[in-house]
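The following block was generated as part of the benchmark described in Methods. Ligand: FE2/S2 (inorganic) cluster.
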Amino acid sequence: MSYRIRLEPSGHEFTALPQESLLEAALRSGINPRYNCSNGTCGDCRARVIQGQVGQHMARDFHFSERERAQGYVMLCATHAESDLVIQADEANSPREMPLQQVPVKLVKFEPVSDKVGVLQLRTSRSNTLRFMAGQYVRLEMAGLPPLDVSIASCPCNGMHLYFHLHRDSEHPLVAQLFAGQHSGAALTVHGPYGELSLDDDSPRPLLMVALGSDFAISKSLIEHAVNLELTQPLRLYWLADAATGHYLDNYCRSWMDVLDDYAFVELHTAAALPSQTEIADLLARLQAASPSPAEADIYLAGPESFTTACSAGLLKLGADPSRLFVFHRRQAMRG
Ligand code: FES
């Protein structure tokens, strides 16, 4: 059994199971309610039940006055649904509204997935998860090493398990240490999130994602968020990579066919890490010939600046709307 929850004033809707908190249900559905501790202490997730019945999901330290209780105030993290609900709650609607956080994390795993790319998995404590939006990046800090800015490769619906795609050619010593296998039990701190772009989930236009190499991480976060939101418009993913970087999650990309109504994945191979002008021209020709066209779509470009600049210029010539072209730049420094 699940209940239908509507948030006011946004009108966002999601389903909640009786055994999960309203906060867990909202995050799982790609909604961004205001929250912090997730354990009933801080009061940041306070919201007002306008219609329906709720139950207490867990004990909470934060106390409401008699008057607030009578008005229907609850903590989303400490409350579960016992009927369909209408709730008045604050939500973050853009990355600018995300609070800057400093979150201690443990390194769970670092796994090389191709000659050049490794997937880093970090875990926060249950009570201090990272709140972010798809497409944002963070600063990783480990004692004795300079900080590393890196895009988040995972879905904002899970702020506890964070994934990153690190490129071996980065000049950063943390990346070098990880590839050298020196990482067991490491403790790090995540600062952020940073970045002012995310998925415009209010737009009904088709989605066109173009990523180069390990900047696929950004597209992955955006697409996972789109899946969570159950967006129904056409979605196309074009992923360019050289042989050393590889399309290291190609099967995962294909698996989105099972959950997206109208989805296609195109793997494009480049001779080197940075595509040549001819290879970019080939990409643009494919985009021009495809449906939906660049003129019809919201376009999300991810890669180093030289790549996104060349692609953006070509896409505008193909009729892309400049206000619907979202460019995400590579965060990891690269040689060459
Ligand atoms: S998030 Fe802190 S009380 Fe709910």
